[in-house]
Amino acid sequence: MAKVSVIVPIYNVQAYLREALDSLVNQTLKDMEIICVNDGSTDGSLDIIREYEAKDNRIVVITGPNGGYGKGMNKGLNRATGEYVGILEPDDYVEENMFEELYAIAHENDLDFVKSDFYRFTRTPEGKEEREYVSIDVTKKNYRQLFDPGREPDRIRYTLNTWTGIYRRAFLNEHHIRHHETPGASFQDNGFFWQTFVLAGRAMIVDHAYYCNRRDNPNSSVKSREKVYCMNIEYDWIRDFLMEDRERWERFQNMYWWKKYFVYGFTLGRIGQEYKKEYLARMQAEYARAMQKGEMSPDVFTELEWTKIQALIRNSGSFYDMFRSVKVFRKLLPYVPQSVKCMIMKAMSWRKK
User: Fold this and answer.
1) 139 φ/ψ sector (left φ>0, alpha ψ -120 to 50, else beta)
2) Rounded distance, CA 81 to CA 31, Å?
3) Which pTM does this prediction carry?
4) CA 102, CA 94: separation in Å to the nearest integer?
5) Dihedral angle computed from the Cα positions of residues 7, 12, 18 and 19, in that order, rounded to the nearest 10 degrees
6) What does the alpha-carbon distance between residue 151 and residue 122 come to, in Å, rounded to a whole number?
């Protein structure tokens, strides 16, 4: 058994794949298994994987027709043999000490999972890398402390990413934790995130960044404007999972609607202009129904967030106007004189109270 199996789900990423694989084969942790799942790539990705496979016996290649992210990830999870499992998206890369250090923490503390901070990065045409450090706990108060996520719903506030950590494989198999396999869908890591958080008993987060997440790949699912309702489909599936156990649903329902508010807002900013009003109408219907059923509490939202939700329920058109004005304001903010900016920020702070 390897200490860590890392799954790399691959579809048409030849421009970035070598950097991702180099970051794995050069890890300081040598006792690893690297599972490359080729999901029907039509570019040179499979040739690159085969090249690395021939040089490193730790690399396992699974290849087949395109079946979508969830199906590909599940193939990798079913094939993994490591004590812990990690994920590397093929247009990203990781620092060379990531899996050695995370494994040591997970093993020492007998964790179901451990997650770390990460970097977002872009590269200029000249190759200069620009990084942004992202803290998964914005409060910075809960690092390196053992916690039970299944009994602490408020921990859902941590930044949602599946690839910043490693997961005990026995834990995943015991609870049959896998990805949703909707054909052609995206954002199926959301369901994996929820399952691991809700079902884990021992977890930890680490205030050190190892994972480097690319933000300039034009083919990323984050950039896709066609897949309008993929997030909604995924969150319907997450709701079904939570409602399998009534106590579980009652414990997590407030945070479900809190997290959903932000991922829907992310989707609203991502999709094409022609879909926004239609999307808001669906948001309005979902949140009106949740309000009617008493599934949301204002206690988990800020006053401003709760005000926006009420505005959405009353009139999705006015909410859209508010959303658009805020977006425009954020774009203009860097060009506003500092004295005016301070006045605006003070006013916004006062309104939040």
Assistant:
1) alpha
2) 12
3) 0.87
4) 12
5) -80
6) 37
Tokens for 178, please give them. Answer: 């896998």
Q: How do residues 138-180 score in pLDDT, each as one tens digit?
A: 999 999 999 999 999 999 999 879 999 999 999 999 999 999 9
Nearest to 189 by CA among 69, 90, 270: 69
Q: Which of 181, 6, 202, 194 is nearest to 93 (CA)?
A: 6
Q: Which residue has the tokens 């020492």?
A: 108
In angstroms, the CA 74 to CA 155 distance is: 26
Please enumerate in sequence order all residues whose Cβ is within 8 A of that of 34, keeping only pairs 6 or more positions apart, or say none. 5, 6, 8, 21, 24, 25, 56, 58, 59, 60
Residue type for 225, please? R
Kindly tell me the burial class for residue 121, based on how many C-beta atoms sit within 10 Å of its own C-beta (0-12, 13-18, 19 or more). Answer: middle
**Has residue 347 got a pLDDT over 60?**
no
Helix residue ranges, H only, 151-229: 169-174, 189-199
Residue located via tokens 């690893």: 32
* AA identity, residue 280: L
CA angle in degrees (0–180, nearest 5) for 126-130-135: 165
Establish how many alpha carbons lie within 13 A of residue 209's alpha carbon, considering only the half-sphere containing its beta carbon.
14
What gap in Å lies between CA 309 and CA 323, rounded to an integer?
Answer: 12
pLDDT of residue 252: 97
Residue 51: its H or E element: helix 45-55
State which amino acid sits at residue 249: W
| Alpha carbons 163 and 117: distance in angstroms, whole number | 10
Which of 245, 321, 256 is closest to 295 using CA atoms? 256
Residue position matching structure tokens 């590909």: 72
C-alpha distances in angstroms, 331 versus 120, 269, 271, 336?
A: 20, 13, 18, 10
Spatial contact of 167 and 117, defined as CB atoms under 8 Å apart: no
- The percent helix, strand, coil of the chain (3-state, each to 5) is 50, 15, 30
Question: Are 226 and 178 contacting, i.e. CB atoms less than 8 angstroms apart?
Answer: no
Assigned token pair, 134: 């992202």
